[in-house]
Structures are given as structure tokens and as C-alpha cells.
Amino acid sequence: MVRNCSPLILKVMKETQAYIERIKRVSRDYQRLELAVDRSLSSLRAGQAILSRRVEKDYEVQHWNPYLRELWFPVEVQDSNIIVIERPAREDFIPGQLLSLIGPVGNPFRFRRKLRNILLLAYETPPGPLLLMLPALLSNQVSVTMILMGSSRAYDTGHLPEEIEILLAEDDLSWPDMVMTLGWADQVFALVGQGNELSYFEQLLQLVRGRRSDVPENYMFGVFQRQLPCGVGACCACMLRARGGAKLQCVDGPAFDLTTLRLD
Ligand code: FES
Question: Which of 43, 72, 89, 98 has the highest local Cβ count within 10 Å?
């Protein structure tokens, strides 16, 4: 597997400062942080993320910090330079906290031109990275079904739009009318927990293959949410094996057609 890792997208990413303007508790386990950000981040689209680090008031860009930045996928982008991030309620944040952000990281999700029905799968992870797509899909009259699987079933969905159909999968990952749902979906986006993601994606792909006669290309996408040491294609830490050569989550992703990846 050969992949020449060199910084590829520095021209569109930049480091900016932001601060937490407001914090809202949206469920027992999650809070939403409203970040006042540089205007360059107001055009973030579903699939794109930011690399975040908390900083102090007199922070300088050169300030060395041994820890990786956190990969945050916004759940909402508001007009007035505000992006909204959903984080576990147990994490300690205060309004006014300064952040250093690098972004945008990655590519927007690619939806089919004639999209009528979409299926979202969240397995062993909160569905945050899938949420930013919802307002645009719903305003385009796309029907959205979300299946929560494994530990994702504990995610409280009370704050999500009412128009979304939300189902909880059984322990064997099946759900009611599964064959019909998979036949009806024009596209599937799957999000899995970190750490064992290739194995989780393989399980989901096999699950779908067992219920559909074929899984065509550009039908089922896996969304990766690995932590990214550089985010610009320079370190190869986020490399994935794919048909036709290696891919990088930070440059080519975060969503990949699961039929093109080597998940073994
Ligand atoms: S190549 Fe460094 S994080 Fe992707």
C-alpha cells in the first residue's frame, strides 16, 4: 500500500480562535456548545469537522501542547458565525472558554442527486456526526430513518427533529421491517464507535448484504471519526486500505463507500 503523505489541503484550512458563547443542556447526557467562530467556519457542511483545543487568553500559535486536538463535528451551523457542537454533559465547559480551531477538515457528504429516503445507522457511538445533515434533508422533503444500535440505543433523541423516524435495533442488530427499510433507502450512512471500527463496519455491511440481494456502489457509506494528528494528509495516521490504493480519512473522508474499503 503506497500513499505519499504530504500536506494537501493547507490552502483551505486555517487556525482561528473561537469562544464558547452559550451552553445548553439538551438531554440528561448531552450538552450543546454554541461557539462564536471565524466567518470562514460558517460555511461548514455536513461531513466536515474541526480540530479543537482549549486555550488560555494569552495563547500563541507557537505554544507547544503534547495532546492531540479533538475532532468535533458540528451538529448545527447558524448564520451569525455560530456553530453548535454536541458534547457529553460530563465534560466541563464554561461560557467564555477560548478555543483554537483548525478547519474545515474533510469533505462534505455526497448525497445522490435524486435522494428521497435516507437511512442512518449509529452503532456503539452517539450519532453527532450525522446530525448536521438533517435540516437540509428535511427541508428537501427527504425521509430520514435513524437506527440506534448497541450502546447507541442509550442516546436520548428527544431534542432531534420530530420528522425523523428513530428505531432501536435488537441485540442482534436487526430492527422491524428491516428488508423494507433497506430496499426503500436510496443511501445509507453508518457511523460506528472508535477503536473497533473496521470490524463494526464489516458487521453492518454483512447485515445489509444478508437482507439485500446486492449492495451497489455509492449506496452504503461508513463515516470515520478517528482522532487526526495532523488533519492535512501529512502523517498517514488515518490511512485506510481501499480498492485502488490507500485513502486518508482527513483528506479523502470522512465518508467512504464501504464496498470499496478493505475491512479485514
Ligand atoms: S494524514 Fe495525518 S491525520 Fe490524516
Answer: 72
